[in-house]
Amino acid sequence: MICNKNAVDYSLYLVTDSSMLPPNTSLYSQIEAGLKNGVTVVQVREKDSDTGAFIDEAVRIKELCTKYQVPLMINDRVDVAMAIDADGVHVGQDDMPIPMVRKLLGPDKIIGWSVGKVEEVETLAYWGPEMVDYIGVGTVFPTETKKNTKIPMGPRGVARILTALEDNKAEWCRTVAIGGLHPTNIERVLYQSFSQNGKRSLDGIAVVSDIMAAPDAGAATKRLQGLLKQNAYHFIPPCSVEKSDLSLHSKIKTVISNVNDKAPLIHHITNKVHQNFGANVTLSLGSSPIMSEIESEAQDLAELPHAALLLNTGSVAPVQMVKTAIAAYNKVKKPIVFDPVGYSATETRLLLNNTLLSHGQFTCIKGNIGEILSLANMSKNKMKGVDSGDHIVDKKYLALATKTVAYNFRTVAVCTGEDDFIADGTFGGEYKLGHGLNKHSLDDVPCLRVENGPIPIMGQITASGCSLGTTIACFLGGYDSRISVFETVTAAVMLYKSAGFKAASLCQGTASFQVHLVDTLYNLFQENSPETWTAKVSVV
Ligand SMILES: Cc1ncc(COP(=O)(O)OP(=O)(O)O)c(N)n1
Ligand SMILES: Cc1ncsc1CCOP(=O)(O)O
Which residue intervals define the domain Thiamine phosphate synthase/TenI in the entry (predicted)? Predict the structure, then answer.
């Protein structure tokens, strides 16, 4: 045994595969490059090798692991692990049953188990600490490396497993996520994967192709190690001011003059009903709209100065196009406002919204009451079309649902209704291997309530909720790291609500309300006097 099995560092777990080696490398050169640069566990997983060849390979890899003092695991083959005295075995759900593996290996060897379901966590908790030492949680994302995987679970699926470990008091069990993990998504996975009470996060990540197929495996490993050590994910530039004495009104003034100066480009992927109105709202706020569903230009648009994406899932854009756009904005750390229209109204929408939610990090998630309750898994009703569904809901319950969405998706969440709720679950982008969110829990999520009295006519025109998304996107497009995302979003919500209230008093009916709404947004934006706005904000 290389070390005490309870002190294994699981942070960067390499699983081998000799079928994907680049030219001029060997299985051993790739593993050694990984070991030299920070791999902390190696698993020999050679699916096509005969027993003799597998043993020969495993013996050579054991020499390397011993040299770098890193534990060696064997995939599936308990006999091979015993024959070469490896440090342990990793088995899947369809392999040898865990109690048998433990009986054969004895108490001191490491046993890893592949887990994708909460019931499997319940089983390992029932067995107790003597059986499973760590679990490989996955498959997180689709991967070419393993074809017969279960449905990808995304970071929310990993979070469910971590919560189940916490709920079942399986504190001894370490965790690594596996499946489709690459530098493009690892920070986001680490940031979003934590248990419901914030006490647990992943102990590490397991990769195959990112190292084994890399032309420079050493550089690939260093890159992964860099991300693991970073401890924070800045999906847009972090707020540079920790505490400010400025009043909310003076911050709002700064936000508006930034938007005015920067004239952000608001890339809309939105439904047809909203497109024209959204474009006019964008223009009224000193910004430029572009309604583009062209996949090949998403990255170019994201890279334009002060670009922000409004993603409204009522659109009919092809899913692949939307995924590309999300990745493009995440790559250059530009804001994305996500509006999951009719989140769970149909199975199709639920699948689409969940697919997109697992595909990116959103700066703000905005929804009506029905959408936010469904996203928080707190809805008592099925959604009725894209309508909010849950009309009469206790305000405390709504605040809790908004905080839950903010917390679960590590975002700023907005719930619209007679009063709007805004919650900030970003915790400054922090993540830490194995330590949860530095003990941040749902109770630590700040939440604000924006009141302005009822504006029923808002619900009688099309796309009024969608255009709040547009307003938030315009404000985030002008983002200035001296003012937090939470405050920037709050400014947008207050402006929109105040404009709605004033427009309702000026209009003669629903058609002129829409016209007055755009006029009022324009005027309030130009005046930039938030102290005169009617919307009031309070802490919940
Ligand atoms: C660390 C880690 N996690 C999961 C797996 C997958 O194991 P399994 O389900 O047995 O599938 P195969 O690897 O046998 O294809 C793993 N190998 N390592
Ligand atoms: C072995 C395994 N188990 C679940 S996914 C997977 C393969 C992961 O490979 P990659 O890191 O190349 O996506």
Answer: 12-211
pLDDT, position 388 = 52
Is residue 466 part of the annotated active site? The answer reads yes
Alpha carbons 249 and 386: distance in angstroms, whole number:
34
Model confidence pLDDT, tens digit, residues 253-278: 999 999 999 999 999 999 999 999 99
Q: Are strands 412-416 and 364-368 parallel, antiparallel or unpaired?
A: parallel
Q: Comparing C-alpha atoms, which of 12, 43, 7, 13 is closest to residue 172?
A: 7
205 phi and psi angles, rounded to 5 deg:
-125, 150
Residue 317 — φ and ψ, nearest 5°? -60, 145
Q: Of the given ranges (70-79, 182-191, 336-345, 469-478), which has the lowest mean pLDDT?
A: 336-345
Model confidence at 438, pLDDT cuts 50, 70, 90, reads low
Residues whose CB is less than 8 angstroms from the CB of residue 432 and which lie 6 or more positions away in sequence, other chains included:
201, 231, 438
Confidence of residue 338 (pLDDT cuts 50, 70, 90): very high
Q: Was domain 5-230 assigned CATH 3.30.70.1070? A: no
Task: Label the pairing between strands 420-424 and 447-451.
Answer: antiparallel
Residue 436: predicted pLDDT: 63
The residue-averaged pLDDT of 134-145 equals 94
From the list 278, 256, 257, the residue with the least C-alpha distance to 267 is: 278
The pick from 13, 15, 46, 212 for probing ligand 2's pocket by mutation, whose C-beta has the most ligand atoms within 8 angstroms, reads 15
Structure tokens at 520: 């009022």
Q: How many CB atoms lie within 10 A of CB 13?
A: 28
Let me know: does 346 contact 383? Beta carbons within 8 Å: no
Q: Of 360, 336, 329, 426, which is closest to residue 154 (Cα–Cα)? A: 360
How many other C-beta atoms are found inside a 10 Å radius of the C-beta of residue 391?
A: 12
List % helix, strand, coil for the chain (3-state, nearest 5): 45, 15, 40
How many whole angstroms from 58 Cα to the centroid of ligand 2?
19
Q: Which value does ipTM take for this structure?
A: 0.99
Q: How far is the CA of 92 from the centre of ligand 1 (A)?
A: 6
**Residues near ligand 2 (Cβ within 6 A):** 15, 138-139, 143, 145-146, 149, 178-181, 207-210
How many angstroms is it from 230 CA to the middle of ligand 2? 23
Output the six-digit token pair for 292.
């583009």
In the chain, where are the structural domains located? 5-230, 248-539
**What CATH number was assigned to the domain covering residues 248-539?**
3.40.1190.20
